[in-house]
Structures are given as C-alpha cells and as structure tokens.
Design a protein that fits this description.
The complex is a heterodimer. Chain A is about 45% helix and about 10% strand. By secondary structure, chain A is an alpha/beta fold. In chain A, the strands form 3 sheets. Chain A has a two-stranded antiparallel sheet. A two-stranded parallel ribbon of chain A has the order 3-6. A two-stranded parallel sheet of chain A has the order 4-5. In chain B, about 10% of the residues lie in helices and about 35% in strands. Classes of the chains: A alpha/beta, B mainly beta. The interface of A and B includes residues 162, 165, 167 and 174 of A.
C-alpha cells in the first residue's frame, strides 16, 4: 500500500493509494460463502438475480422505517401499546415490512434508559434500522457495553444521570430489539413527519437520546 | 410443552461450558437473575446449528440481571441492569443451586 500517485498538475502532492477490496485477506468464511452461493445458484435453488435482488432490498432498508414507527407511536397511544406488544404486527399496520424475526421495542422512560448490543455476533433489527454501523459490530462495543455501559455511552456524548437505570439489552437469541426513545419536550406542535425527522438511528440503538435545544 | 418458570421467578443460569453453538454468553453463566418476560418457544439453535430440526421447541425467557451481580467491580449505580434471552434448559431455580 506504499504506492503513491498524484492526480494532476493542480494538486502536485501525492497521497497513498486506497487499497482495493481484494487487497484484504480472503478468509475461509469468505471462500465458503462464495462457494455455497455458487452451489445454490448452480442447483437452481435460487437465481443470481434473486440473490442480487435480496441484497439490494436489504441494503435499501434504513432507519427511516423505524423512525416512522416511533413518531406514530408518540402520537397514537393505542398504536404504541400494540407496538410494545408486537413490533412486527404494528409495522404491518403502517405497511412497513419488519421481516420475520420478532422485534421487541423497549421504551425509554424518565427512569430507564435502554441500549442494545449483540455480544455474541451482530444481531440488529435491520428491517427497521437498516444495516448496522461498523462500531456496532466491533469487539470493543460488544464487550464493553455490557461491562461498562455508562463509560461507552459517555464516549457517544451521552451522560445518563445516576438516578436513571441504564438497562443493556443483549440480543443473544430469538429476538431483535429497538429502542422507543422519549419524545422530546417542545415538540407538541410537530406533525408525524417532522417528529420522524428527529428520530435517528443512534437513538433507536440507545447510544444517544433526542436532545432539542 | 409447558413453561417451567413464570415472570418474577428468581433463576440461576447453569454454570456449564459445553462445546458447540451456544447462545448463552459466558458472562451470565452461574449468575442469578429474574424472569422478566416470556418469549414464545423456539426450535433449539444448539441443535439447528448442526442440521437437526431443534424440536421439540424450547421455551425462551427474558431474564433481568443486576449489573452488580454480573460484575464484582461494576462501577455504575446500583440500579443498572442487563437483560437477555435465555433458553429454559440453561435456567434452574435459585434454591436448587448450592454454588
């Protein structure tokens, strides 16, 4: 990776060349994934286009879906109750596809701040939040969040008062989790779309709270 | 299959270290907690990981642990907790256990 180049005369200073994807090590699991995918396609279990379409659909998911649900729950207490009971069914009411893995919404209150992690791997509610950020999959986040949650939250700029319980949800088994954040003060006049605009990925993971100045 | 525990039961996680695809993290093994919610029965992933059907399905519970019970030197306030999903065969009643 020591090779350098410069673009043109306007900018004579060379910079290191960015490595290509193939420059990283090819692991056994990567080889196996490719081999299994090729086999499934060869045996016509699904087509290459099916696989591409599925990957494209997964990549197109974003936190906007979860944010819409949160805003709707803030405005409609009955919907909120149904969402806390069964997120997947509540999503369907809003024509949002939450996937087949059951998702549990946990509600932040003035007494409890919730935050999610998957210590074993990287389980994440992809259908409602999109693909997880890289830090969510890092060993540091996964091991430290259960061990010293308040220190980790502080690194995200989030300080939770000592009289508020910090509750870590470790996605170890059959459920995925999302946080239902508290509706910030001063938003009484906002409509659902504007409220949804306040709801970020990180506050649905629980590493931050919605703060309005 | 009927569930062995109900919400509010105090339980202890088995302190066992079997090989294979186990979804009970090390840090809760041998620790005590409280059943906080019932989750539907699910085929056992410890079996499914090896191509078997994982049947009959196993009840899964959400169990709430005090951070102070998980980590001897936990630095945060007394009230902090961790909650996770545990399969029934990893749980025993608190009094059964002499550890």
């Amino acid at each position: 990776m020591s090779e350098t180049h410069s673009h043109d005369d306007d900018w004579p200073y060379p910079h290191p060349q960015q490595p290509d994807i193939e420059d990283g090590p090819l692991t056994d699991l990567m080889i196996m994934t490719d081999a299994v995918a090729e086999l499934l396609i060869d045996k016509e279990v699904f087509s290459a286009d099916d696989m591409r379409r599925t990957l494209e659909a997964i990549d197109s998911k974003s936190p906007a879906e979860g944010a819409r649900m949160v805003a709707h729950a803030w405005l409609d207490p009955d919907f909120k109750a149904r969402m806390l009971e069964d997120v997947n069914a509540a999503a369907e009411e809003m024509s949002i596809d939450a996937g087949t893995i059951p998702i549990l919404a946990v509600e932040n209150t003035k007494d409890i701040h919730n935050v999610i992690v998957c210590t074993l791997c990287s389980c994440y509610p992809k259908y409602l939040l999109g693909l997880p950020p890289d830090w969510y999959k890092s060993r540091a986040y996964r091991s430290r969040l259960v061990r010293e949650p308040r220190a980790v939250l502080k690194e995200f700029g989030t300080e939770i008062p000592d009289d508020v319980e910090v509750r870590v949800h470790d996605s170890t088994a059959e459920l995925r989790y999302m946080i239902l954040p508290m509706r910030p003060k001063g938003t009484e006049d906002m409509d659902e779309e504007a409220l949804a605009g306040l709801v970020t990925r990180d506050c649905m993971i629980g590493v931050t709270v919605i703060d309005r100045d | 299959m009927s569930a062995r525990f109900i919400v509010g039961d105090r339980v202890r996680v088995r302190q066992a270290y079997p090989p294979g695809h186990v979804r009970t993290p090390y840090y809760v093994r041998g620790k005590e907690g409280v059943v906080s919610r019932m989750i539907a029965e699910h085929p056992n992933p410890e079996e499914r990981a090896y191509g078997r059907d994982g049947l009959p399905p196993v009840p899964v519970y959400r169990v709430l642990f005090r951070q102070n019970d998980l980590w001897q030197d936990y630095q945060g306030p007394e009230g902090d907790t961790t909650e996770l999903d545990i399969q029934e065969h990893w749980l025993g009643p608190l009094e059964e256990d002499g550890e």
